[in-house]
């Protein structure tokens, strides 16, 4: 539902559990990169968080917090996460599943998109589950209060340590390949282990080749021709309790048909698994729904996506005479991306006459590697002049020693100068989780904003933190001490 009037904004806010002050009504002149219009029911279709608003001076706020003030208080780069948007998206998935699927269901957050104690706690409180792919993500989920019975452990190369942790915690292990099965058999668990078997469905969709996972040439999952063999092998292991089947076709997808096609593939696998005596009750269709990064993006709503998947699974099971399984899906990007933004402070300016104007910011590929990795695009505004007319096109460059460290090309902005704070929208997914210390640059802080309050949920790294795990062998320490006393001669000997 799109907000078009003030009264509609208030009613939608109430339905989403928000205060009316958190929503801004559309005005006829609402155009440009910062849009006053909001889709409360499907936040993945917005450029900015649903609580975005302008104060009396036209400056941008999110979650009732002034973004320029956040940049001053916490420094930049700064990840900002809007609690209301994240909760609204969780509820959108949960309510859509309840409305469109006649059987039981569960939405599972793919925490690889953004893993933290705060996000785990929020998602758990909204009744969702969580998908982890490492010991770190699993521990974060458990410490964040996610019940073990709502956690699944993915991964195409799980270690003994990861599997031991998962078994001990009682989470469901996604069986990705024969190696997983061999390791689990070696561990010889005494109690039954809940397993979900991942298969490659052979379905391709239009997305970046790096994030396609459903086609046959993929590192994930069992090939279809191996399915019966692994199902029969599992019957030989008393500890193996196969409770679910899983497939995933990719990420940032705007098409609905590939997800509908997946239902038939999974229903056939479900029929085979049950015929061999496996008590499979869960059918996990993965995630992949896209979001709106730029004005030209037009992703389906959460409700459309869930309805298409739910109806296809229901129909496929009816056609095969199967009792309806519990329907699981794994949203990641579409759950958290639109809730987040990143604040930068503009520094240097370089004009190449007739070619390009560069504006450099105090972050870049270490806090957002997606542009250099996937050629990803974003939308950005000056937080103190988000509605000002754009009069120039600039290229937003990062500060790293890499020519490809470009965040946005040909960005339309009003005149900007050193010290201005810039907000890049839709950075809640795969920014913090893929961040690095390239050039030994510390990772940013993160704050959670809600109803005018900002809580620090991730401390900013300091340069000295980067030395925490470095070790200097004693022989090198002695040489270093010598060089500091004897000058360049000792340094040359080293």
Can you walk me through this structure?
With 494 residues, the chain is of the alpha/beta class. It has 2 domains: 6-83 and 338-461, Lyase, Ornithine Decarboxylase, Chain A, domain 1, CATH 2.40.37; 154-331, Alpha-Beta Barrel (TIM Barrel), CATH 3.20.20.10. Helices cover 30% and strands 21% of the residues. It is built from 14 helices and 20 strands. It has helices at 6-15, 67-74, 83-100, 117-125, 135-143, 160-169, 178-187, 227-234, 257-275, 302-319, 333-336, 370-374, 474-486, 488-493, and strands at residues 53-54, 60-62, 65-66, 78-82, 105-110, 129-132, 151-153, 172-175, 193-198, 240-246, 282-284, 326-329, 340-352, 356-361, 380-382, 392-397, 406-413, 421-425, 445-450, 453-458. Strands 4, 13, 14, 15, 16, 17, 18, 19 and 20 form a 9-stranded mixed beta sheet that branches. An 8-stranded parallel barrel has the order 5-6-7-8-9-10-11-12, surrounded by 6 helices. β8, α7 (178-187) and β9 form a beta-alpha-beta unit. The protein is globular, with a radius of gyration of 25 Å. The model is unreliable at 1-32, 206-215 and 488-494 (pLDDT under 50).
Supply the key terms.
494 residues, alpha/beta, TIM Barrel, 2 domains, 8-stranded parallel β-barrel, globular, disordered N terminus, disordered C terminus
Which helices and strands appear, and what pairs or packs with what?
Elements: H1 6-15, E1 53-54, E2 60-62, E3 65-66, H2 67-74, E4 78-82, H3 83-100, E5 105-110, H4 117-125, E6 129-132, H5 135-143, E7 151-153, H6 160-169, E8 172-175, H7 178-187, E9 193-198, H8 227-234, E10 240-246, H9 257-275, E11 282-284, H10 302-319, E12 326-329, H11 333-336, E13 340-352, E14 356-361, H12 370-374, E15 380-382, E16 392-397, E17 406-413, E18 421-425, E19 445-450, E20 453-458, H13 474-486, H14 488-493
Parallel strand pairs: 4-19, 5-6, 5-12, 6-7, 7-8, 8-9, 9-10, 10-11, 11-12, 14-16
Antiparallel strand pairs: 1-2, 2-3, 4-13, 13-14, 13-18, 15-18, 16-17, 19-20
